[in-house]
Amino acid sequence: MAQGTIRYWAAAKAAAGVHEEPYDAVTLADALARAARVDGRDADFGRVIGRSSFLVDGVPVGKRPHEAIELPEGGVVEVLPPFAGG
Fold it and tell me: Where does the chain cross the membrane (predicted)?
């Protein structure tokens, strides 16, 4: 189990209700599942996450399965929803 930080941007930040929060997870899929279970988060959070792209310590996840992305100790996951005009 690794510990690190999830950072949310734009619509992901609005859906999460915070700019960042800690993770305690083995994989990206595990971290996102735990984040979805935070009290007060609704279906909008899941929709935004489902459309987002991710960086783990600056490396794009791309189309790799989130279950296959192991999170590093002290790492940073960036949650990037689609941006208008970009």
Answer: none
| Residue 57 half-sphere exposure toward CB, CA atoms < 13 A | 9
Q: Per the structure, how many domains does the chain have?
A: 1
Output the CA angle 37-32-19, nearest 5 degrees: 85
Q: Is residue 85 pLDDT above 60, yes or no?
A: no
Q: Which residue range(s) make up the domain with 57?
A: 2-80
Give pLDDT, residue 84.
54
CA angle 11, 29, 78 (to 5 degrees): 40
Mean pLDDT of all residues in 11-23? 97
| Any domain includes 86 | no
Tens-place pLDDT, residues 29-42 = 999 999 999 998 99
CA distances for 47 relative to 4, 26, 43, angstroms: 23, 23, 6
